[in-house]
Predict the structure of Tc1-like transposase DDE domain-containing protein.
Amino acid sequence: MPSDLAAAHYAKKTVTLLEEAGVPFVARDENPPCVPQLRPIEEFWGIVKQEVYKGGWRAASEVQLKNRIQRVLRSIREEVPRTMMERVPERVRRAERRGVNSSLH
């Protein structure tokens, strides 16, 4: 899911793997820079963070935090990030029509 303009996210090997796996992604030439609210990864990590720290949980160590993050990631249904990616084209079109702030939740 290339979510920013990092070269590695658009490397031929990366794009080929995404296409073969049927993962939707935004083409580099359609991916606007510096618009984090259009990037599903920002929303996704917001969900992860919320779940990790749910109920006021605090990590006692880096290892404990890593383990908690891994548990949360495993608990997220596969369709959640897929749905986020599928909404990107419409969010980009809305931002083009109405301005970037229109794409905020």
Summary: The chain has four helices and no strands. Residues 10 and 27 are 8 Å apart (CA to CA). Residues 7-103 form one domain.
